[in-house]
């Protein structure tokens, strides 16, 4: 189990770096403080809500309940990411490059 947690933890740094970089890039400069505040608050609040919901699901459905919810949410996140990439490829530009007028465009390969 500790090895699995360590391996899963290796995904946290790239995720956090990407999340903060995208937030900075997509947010107008005058709203950056608010966006970062919401971003910083969202992680702990989401974790707390997820743990509370998992506890309720374990009590009512056993261990299978929260595991199935985690699987469904991961699948939905994958579909969302794939649809964003597909939309970007169709337009020939990344969503983040089109977010700000005058932003440098990153060509898709």
Question: In terms of topology, how is this protein built?
Answer:
Blueprint: H1 2-9, H2 12-26, H3 32-61, H4 64-91, H5 95-99
Verbal overview:
The chain is mainly alpha-helical. It has one domain (2-99). The mean pLDDT is 81. It is 79% helix and 0% strand. 0% of the residues are buried. The protein contains five helices and no strands. It has helices at 2-9, 12-26, 32-61, 64-91, 95-99. It is globular, with a radius of gyration of 18 Å. The longest helix is centred in the middle third of the chain and has 30 residues, at 32-61. Keywords: Membrane, Transmembrane, Transmembrane helix. The chain crosses the membrane at residues 6-22, 34-54, 66-85. It comes from Streptomyces lanatus.
Oligomer: single chain
Q: How many strand elements?
A: 0
Order of helices and strands: HHHHH
The N- and C-terminal alpha carbons lie at a distance of: 39 Å
Would you tell me the overall average pLDDT? 81
Low-confidence stretches: none
Beta-sheet strand percentage?
A: under 5%
Rg, nearest Å:
18 Å
Helix content bin: over 70%
Any idea what the shape is? globular
Largest sheet: none
Structural class: mainly alpha
Q: What count of structural domains?
A: 1
Helical run tally: 5
Keywords:
single chain; 109 residues; 5 helices; MFS_trans_sf
Compact description:
It comes from Streptomyces lanatus. The chain is 79% helix and 0% strand.
């Amino acid at each position: 189990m500790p090895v699995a947690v360590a391996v899963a933890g290796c995904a946290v740094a790239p995720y956090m770096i990407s999340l903060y970089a995208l937030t900075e890039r997509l947010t107008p400069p005058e709203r950056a403080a608010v966006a970062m505040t919401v971003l910083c608050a969202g992680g702990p609040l989401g974790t707390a809500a997820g743990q509370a919901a998992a506890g309720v699901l374990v009590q009512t459905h056993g261990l299978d309940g929260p595991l199935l919810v985690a699987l469904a949410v991961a699948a939905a996140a994958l579909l969302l990411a794939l649809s964003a990439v597909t939309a970007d490829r169709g337009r020939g530009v990344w969503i983040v490059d089109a977010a700000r007028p005058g932003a440098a465009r990153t060509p898709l390969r």
